[in-house]
Amino acid sequence: MIKVEIIHLETLLWIHKLGTFAAAADRLNTTQPAISLRIREMENRLGVSLFKRQGRRMVLTARGRNLIEQCEPLLNQLRYALLATDGFSMSEGNVRMGVGEIAALSCMPPCLAALKKQMPGVTFEIDVDLTINLQQKIAAGNLDLAVLVGPVTSPYMRSTLIGPVPMRWMCNRSMKEEIEQQGLSSHDVLNRLPFWCLSRPSHLYEMMLSMIRAKGGSTKNINTCNHVKALIETVSAGAGIGILPEPLARHHIHVGNLAEIDVGIPIDPIEFFAVMPSSEEDPLLNEIFMRISKIRIDT
C-alpha cells in the first residue's frame, strides 16, 4: 500500500503555487530541508519524479501535474472540513496581506486583532503600499490577498466592497481665514496656493492632478508626500491645501488645526475593496477573505 500523507500533498501543492522549496517552507512554517525530505519521501513511495528544476524554480513534471489536478480539490475539501470544525481556530500558516495606507490606519488594526484572536496559529505579513503596487504584487503571486482602492476590474481577481472613505479638501484653519479675508476666488486658490497630496502614482495624486487641470488650475503647485499621517500633519501645520481622508483628520478638525475648504471642486469618496485571486482555493485564505469582507470603515 502506498503511504502518502496529507502533509506530503500539501507540501507538493505549495511548492507548485509558490515556485520554490524555500517559499513553501515559509508558508508551512517549517524549514527547507524538511520540505525537501517530504518530497523525497513522496517520490520514493510513488516511484516517480514529481518536480524538475527550471532555472531557479521547481516545476511539476507531467505526473506531478496530474497528481495536483486529481488531489488539489479533494485536499481543499478535506482541509476546509477539518478547519471549519472548530471555526478555523486551529489553523496554521503564513498569510501575506497587502493593505492601502488609509485602510491600514483605520479599519485594519481592529480587524487583524480579531483575526489573531480567532486564529492564533496564523502569522500575518502586512505590506502597506500604494494600490497600484499592491495590484502588481497580488497579480505576481507575491501577496495572497489585499485591501486596496477600487474598483477592481480584472477578471482574474475576486473583490468585495468594504466601504467608502470620505475625502475632503482641507487646510490649516488660519490659512482658511486668510483666504476668506483676502476674498480669493477658487481660480486664485487653484493657481496661487500650494497643494499637497499622496505621492505619484497613487490614486489620490492622479485624482488631484486631473481635477485641478479640469478647472484650469496650475499643477506646478502640487507637492507630494508618501505617508498619509505625515501628509495630514504637513497640511495641518499650514503648508498648503490637501485632499485628506476625513476619518483620519478628525482629531485635527476637533482641536481646530484643520478646516474644510471650498476650492470649487467637489470630491468623491474613495472605495476600498478586499481582493484575492479568483483562482485561489485554499480554505484558510478564503475564510480570511470572507472575514475581511465583512469589516466596515468608520465614516
Task: Walk me through this protein's architecture.
- There is one protein chain.
- The chain is an alpha/beta fold and 299 residues long.
- It folds into three domains: 6-84, Arc Repressor Mutant, subunit A (Orthogonal Bundle), CATH 1.10.10.10; 93-165 and 271-293, 3-Layer(aba) Sandwich (D-Maltodextrin-Binding Protein, domain 2), CATH 3.40.190; 167-268, D-Maltodextrin-Binding Protein, domain 2 (3-Layer(aba) Sandwich), CATH 3.40.190.10.
- The chain has 13 helices and twelve strands.
- It has helices at 6-18, 21-27, 32-46, 62-84, 101-104, 108-118, 131-139, 173-182, 186-192, 203-214, 228-236, 246-254, 283-293, and strands at 51-54, 57-60, 93-99, 122-128, 145-149, 157-165, 167-172, 195-198, 222-225, 241-245, 258-260, 270-277.
- The strands form three sheets. The protein has a five-stranded mixed beta sheet with strand order 4-3-5-12-6, sandwiched between helices.
- α1 crosses α4 (62-84).
- The longest helix is centred in the N-terminal third of the chain and has 23 residues, at 62-84.
- The radius of gyration is 25 Å and the shape is elongated.
- The model has no long low-confidence stretch (mean pLDDT 88).
